[in-house]
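Hi D.,

Good news: the full-assembly prediction came through. Inputs first.
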Amino acid sequence: MSFDDQMRDALKTFVIESLELLQDMEDGLLGLEDDPEPSERINAIFRAAHTIKGSSGLFGLDHIVAFTHVVESVLDTLRDGKLSVSPELVAILLPCCDHMIELIQAVADGNVSTNPSMTNAERQLLDGLESFLKPEPKQVVTTVQQAGEQFEASGGGVIDSGNWHLFIQFGENCLRDGMDPLSFIRYLATLGEIMSLTTFSHAMPDAESMDPESSYLGFEIVLKSDADKATIEAVFDFVRDGSYIHILPLEDKIPYYVELINSLGEDNSQLGELLLKSGVITQRELQEGLNVQQAQVPQPNTRLGEILVDQQVVQQPLVNAALEKQQQIKDNKARENQTIRVDAERLDKLIDVIGELVISGAGVNLRALQTSDSALLEATSEMMRLVEEVRDGALQLRMVAIGATFSRFQRVVRDVGKELGKDISLVITGGDTEVDKSVVEKIGDPLMHLVRNAMDHGIESAEVRAARGKSSRGELRLNAYHESGSIAIEVSDDGGGLDRDRILAKAIEKGLVQPDAKLSDQEIYSLIFEPGFSTASQISNLSGRGVGMDVVKRNVTDLRGDIEVESRPGQGSTIRIRLPLTLAIIDGFLVGVGKSSYVIPLDRVVECLELSGDLNDRDYMDLRGEVLPFIRLRNLFNIRGDQPRRPNVVVVHAAGVKTGLVVDRLIGEFQTVIKPLGKLFGHVEGLGGSTILGSGEVALILDVPVLVSAFEHKLQGNMHLAQA
Amino acid sequence: MAKTILVVDDAASVRQVVGIALKGAGYDVIEACDGKDGLSKLNGQKIHLIISDVNMPNMDGITFVKELKQLPAYKFTPVIMLTTESQEGKKQEGQAAGAKAWVVKPFQPAQMLAAVSKLILP
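Then the structure:
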């Protein structure tokens, strides 16, 4: 029978055994309240939970361990008499029992990880259980501490002479306890290489008084190992009592550790923490040192560093290095105080006021230009320069690094990877790229969807990756950089890339494109952003319901950004979002219709041309052989008055389609401070906001994509009417 | 000759998985379902290591170790106790009884093997 078969077999035993235990538990619980002497019953119930917890850990069923642990804790307090049997307690324990049955059944059905649909119910049960545990300090879920959580104590570098110095005198009783010193040293050798071993026999008494069952030997060992101090210390866990065990970095490795201490992060300024993080002392050694310090009477007066050196767990130069680092951190903390935190609302208010200042400045400038007072002109031009500087400075205040948003995804990638059973690492670059606070706030959700999508559909399963000759670990990248006045954010994966043919087939099936349409790769890839599009044949919890990519696109468009896809078959794909750096001020293009002015966002403008020979009876024109539909702003906004003889057309692009906007006058580029429209205008389509011109007049900012799509809908409606 | 390990636990699945891991590492394994059964399975044969749970019906792990240490043939046999984080007191009791090594539940098979190989050579 293969190993896997054996384990499957064992898992079957586990399921049967657990279900039996849970049945016992339920029976026990049901009779609990009526039992005058419940202690035996409680013991049996406790044992059932305890056994299930232990066994599920063995099979790596961590979610069962976590839940059962809480149940067990409650039962433990009950067993210790700290809690008494009550109808409420039984009422919560019975559903817990049911939940455990469900969990075990799920395992029997092959679901060895958490089922999201169960977690809600589980949360409620846990809350109920917690209320019984309140008076007791909460216990930590028992997981074995991973060595990986410790700071990497001894990194790379060629170390030939060994890096740890061990002094071990085994306790006299260790042989009597069944502990063989030799086997511990052999086990130590599995962590690295024993470079030298010296045996001390000076504790050995004369032959007549020697007890052959006692251990007298001491050892000095030089070990070359990548393991950290805590791991090495753990080798001797079973013989620590009565033994003398000291582990020190080798003298010539001290400079390395000094450097390590210096390179530590600055979130901690306690001496013990610094030494612990650099791996030169272990948690246990620190605790012992602190205990010694606390035990001093009348009050602790010896410094921790001295105690640790005294106990021979660390050398003096390392303590000195940590003390220096401590001072440095204190200095830095003092410097940190020079930055201040500001309420975001106040900052927004300031930006608003500065926006007003820009506008009224422009007004003053306009008036000044109408006079010929040279002193006034000079003063206003100086003022305008300062106002611009203030504006730029104020906008700078709202800029935050995107790194914090990115690093949230470390957790997401880990959790989702676990859920999907894929090993995926996240690489973040360009985290210090700055972008407007409001952009950062709104980009989280679309990014979340892109990341999940890339993990789910982009990166292949480990088997497929191995077959394609890639490393089994998938890689997801988040990158950000500045590009001519906008910020680009990229989500890339090293998965299979987009399947061009499948996307096209799906799009045709859904009627998104005509079967005979000739599309470029780029056009095909952007079909994934169409509403209702999804190629995944299986719907998963994470993505694949076809409501995602189109929402992402809409979010990005709302931020006045755009989104594009790049894909290399078999090598991965990149989705790039481009967003404006700020949402408060944009580059606009000012146009006039009648007496009103309108601002078109400059990045939407393709070109401007004159509408010659307009007969006012059609809504399209010939643009170098292409049909260009256009919208007459005069009609759209119901502006009275005569149309000039030669109106202009501003060609704008939205959703990859060009449309013309017919206006009376072209005025030119204009730094536009965006003022949101009041709620009253919430239902008006096609307007993105307003701004105030230097003359004090109000100009409306056109929301080009909405304007165009609303116009198209109306057009289609008219056609239907015409057909009917 | 392969060394023999006695595994005492009331949960059959634990015995099974620990057994698979130990046999895979080259040990011989004898199973017992509680302390009483454990004592009866000794039969005077050479046992190199004992792994025992604490909470068991009939005879618990602590009593089992105490009784074991009374037997001259098994006085020096190393014992690994399966304790839990919440049972610090039981661990102390076990050590006083003579079970100096321990593995904290829930554990992975690899952790069990590491603890075993600290104590005996396969």
